[in-house]
Specification:
The chain is an alpha/beta fold. The protein has 13 helices and 5 strands. Helix 3 crosses helix 6, helix 6 packs across helix 8 and helix 11 runs antiparallel to helix 12.
């Protein structure tokens, strides 16, 4: 039976829709492929193109062709000390990416920082960080251990904790304190940080990485390094006052609990806000000692 014009038009319309859907799927798959291989999703990609792979006892290093980086064993040797401080083991080998040039780094990562740890266990190292380490401006060991601290904690928490509720100030405070980063490069030491706090500089930890952070005025030479050192001083104070075992219990409980203030009070017997007042009072009184 011959189809009517209306039926033919309906069939043609459905065919057009199918073709449009297929085209969108192909475009979407192409865009995702680009993002994974050469774009912002690169650290999550299961396929790594243009990098040499070096599988070591504790890590997997990917070095972009032409980067010339050779200190594989040095980076790999940092893992045991990170595990020792945190009293946790890596559940899988961190993937560490070292880039050849600035353009590649900025195109394939979501950061402009020297180093960046992703919640999936990938860690990226910028070419200018490697250069600064060679020039003695920064310690490659300290900075990599800092990021490995983040990576280790990420491996022991859920995706919601990594992105939403694990205290970001605590992540940074642990990383700076555990690596002895205070007093190196642009990071003020403990006494210098205390001096800035006594002058009225203080970033409330709960403001960090929120809309309220930029509203806090700080009169310090380097804003972010002061903030990180301040958080490390808080970690230092907790450990010095009540011991590392209690601090590690606090740190680990939060890996699977999104009620920070409740966990803090259960661990330390005081509200977090009251503790911060006590910490600042201690900083002020330390000047008189």
């Amino acid at each position: 039976m011959e189809k009517t014009g209306q039926e033919r038009n309906s069939m043609a319309g459905r065919r057009t829709v199918r073709l449009a859907v297929i085209a969108l799927i192909i475009i979407g798959m192409g865009a995702l492929t680009y993002l994974f291989l050469w774009g912002k999703l690169f650290p999550y990609s299961p396929v790594i193109v243009g990098f040499s792979k070096h599988e070591l006892p504790h890590t997997v290093l990917f070095v972009q062709n032409g980067a010339g980086f050779q200190e594989f064993s040095r980076v790999d040797s940092l893992i045991p000390s990170v595990e020792e401080f945190h009293q946790l083991k890596f559940t899988k080998k961190p993937r560490i990416f070292i880039f050849r040039d600035r353009e590649s780094y900025l195109r394939r990562t979501i950061t402009e920082a020297r180093f960046y740890a992703y919640p999936n266990g990938s860690l990226v190292i910028s070419p200018w960080a490697v250069k600064e380490a060679e020039e003695g401006k920064i310690s490659l060991d300290i900075y990599v251990r800092h990021e490995l601290s983040h990576t280790l904690l990420y491996q022991h928490m859920g995706i919601l904790a990594a992105y939403l509720y694990y205290p970001k100030w605590l992540m940074e405070g642990i990383a700076v304190y555990s690596t002895g980063q205070m007093g190196t490069s642009w990071y003020p030491g403990r006494d210098e940080t205390y001096g800035y706090i006594r002058q009225g500089n203080f970033m409330p930890p709960q403001f960090y990485k929120t809309g309220r952070e930029d509203k806090v005025r700080l009169d310090v030479p380097y804003r972010i390094t002061f903030i990180y050192s301040e958080f490390a001083c808080i970690v230092d104070y907790l450990i010095a006052a009540q011991g590392k075992e209690k601090f590690l219990n606090y740190m680990k409980t939060l890996l699977n609990n999104n009620h920070h203030d409740r966990v803090f009070k259960e661990c330390y017997g005081v509200d977090f806000d009251q503790f911060l007042l006590k910490f600042k009072d201690s900083v002020q009184s330390s000047e008189k000692m």
